[in-house]
Inverse folding.
C-alpha cells in the first residue's frame, strides 16, 4: 500500500519514471538526509541511479559510468526486493541501459548514448 511508504519516496519514484532525474534525485536526497539506518544506503543507491541517468542523458559518459557502478554496489545489497521494489529486476534493467557504456573501454566513447527504450522504470508500490 502506498501509505506504507514515505511520501518523498513515492514522489522520488514517480519523478524517476517521468524521467525527471534531476528532481527525482533532489526529492530522494531530501528523504535520504532525514533517514537513518539501512534504508539510508538504499535511498543513496536510488539517488545515484537517477544521477547516473542524468549524466548519461547529458553525455557526461565518464560520470555516468562511475555513478552507475556505485549505484549498483549500493542496490545489490537490497535484492531481490526492498521497500516494495523489485530491486533485482531494476538492476537487470539498469544493466541493460548502461551495457554499451560499460562495455566500451574507450576513454571518450563515441556513438554511445542513452537510448529511450532502455531507460529503466521503477514499479511504484501500490500501483
Amino acid at each position: 500500500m502506498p501509505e506504507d511508504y514515505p511520501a518523498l519516496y513515492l514522489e522520488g519514484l514517480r519523478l524517476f519514471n517521468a524521467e525527471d532525474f534531476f528532481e527525482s534525485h533532489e526529492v530522494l536526497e531530501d528523504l535520504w538526509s532525514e533517514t537513518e539506518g539501512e534504508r539510508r544506503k538504499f535511498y543513496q543507491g536510488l539517488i545515484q541511479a537517477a544521477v547516473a541517468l542524468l549524466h548519461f542523458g547529458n553525455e557526461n559518459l565518464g560520470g555516468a559510468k562511475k555513478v552507475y557502478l556505485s549505484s549498483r554496489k549500493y542496490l545489490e545489497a537490497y535484492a531481490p526486493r526492498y521497500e516494495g521494489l523489485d530491486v533485482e529486476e531494476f538492476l537487470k534493467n539498469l544493466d541493460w541501459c548502461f551495457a554499451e557504456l560499460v562495455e566500451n573501454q574507450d576513454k571518450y566513447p563515441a556513438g554511445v548514448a542513452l537510448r529511450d527504450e532502455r531507460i529503466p522504470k521503477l514499479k511504484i508500490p501500490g500501483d
